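Suppose you are handed only these lines of text.
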Amino acid sequence: MKWLRDPLLAPIVEKVEAGERLSFDEGMRLYHTRDLNALMRLANRTKERLHGDKVFFVHSMRLEFTNICYVGCTFCAFAARKGEERAWDYSPEEVVEQVRRRYLPGITELHMSSGHHPNHKWAYYPEMVRRLRGTFPDLQVKAFTAAEIEHLAKISKMPTLEVLRELQAAGLAAMPGGGAEIFADRVRRQVAKNKVKAEKWLQIHREAHSLGMRTNATMLYGHIETLEERLDHMHRLRGLQDETGGFHAFIPLAFQPLGNTLAQNLGKTEFTTGLDDLRNLAVARVYLDNFPHIKGYWVMIGSELTQVSLDWGVSDIDGTIQEEHIAHAAGATSPMALSQAGMVKMIQQAGRLPVLRDAYYNELEVFPRPNAEAAD
Ligand code: V47
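From them, the structure of the protein bound to V47 can be written out as follows.
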């Protein structure tokens, strides 16, 4: 192992080769190592064992049906109060119209997450899903974070399991991974004190999995959390995945530092560094041995770094998206959308095999292997 410069990683290399699970201490060693080349190799080895050269993406549309929210998370620049000029709030009919306006042939996944609106009645939500499924039968609706599900349980006065059951009956295909932030209480109290608690977030995903619904998990990093708190977050997710096997992907979300009170209070104007983004993805790939995919989210880390991340454990790069407001409200400089051809090219240029998937991770099309001779 000529390439290994950090002797502390030697036992980890052996474990990864043997397909064995890392302990918490070993996970921390990965976070602290300065041997980034070794970290990259470990993550890539793990990724290639699972997926070979394949990298997955989806032809998708994002829609935030309202930005009105009463929760007040300090990292958020997206939320507006009712009556504010920049507030929007679509009825179920308007949601269908918005989708019709942006619809492109071949889109499979509609990803919706939005604010916790103070006035919508429970019926608004299943009706929206039913209308969407009725109008666009090929669209797979991935919507409502665990935080939103808890909000719906409050307004419907139903248990969260029942809320999930009714949304599933209305046609909900899967749940996105938002609202997880950082599970550790110390951080949660400062960044999302009115939002779903960590245990409840996990419980809602456990319930969704018990109904056969697959979900994702995110982690918002690059603000006030420590590296231990990041790994603790992953550790809790790994535990739940052992129980249920219901997670598709883990998605680190790089903190976007503009226009929110958390960044202002911290005096923070810098984005996360490229190396921290890559390190975080790689640690996740090795530590979350039971997660099928680690997603590199180009909206928050940029498409250039997302392309590089394909050597750092990433096997999924989300989708074409069309329009996104949560990250862009907080300063994201990425474009609003990527084309399908652009995503294929981005993966091929990295020497990988692009696989178009749907929201259930069915493989719809495998694109040709990149031409090694081509300059671009
Ligand atoms: O829950 C809010 C985060 C999430 C900021 O499941 C911020 O496939 C960074 O969950 N900087 C919503 N992040 C987005 C989300 C997501 C994204 C992509 C894919 C999937 C998936 C899910 O965005 C929120 C919150 O954690 N967020 N503000 C910010 N300033």
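What can we learn from it? Residues 227-244 form the longest helix (18 residues). The mean pLDDT is 96.
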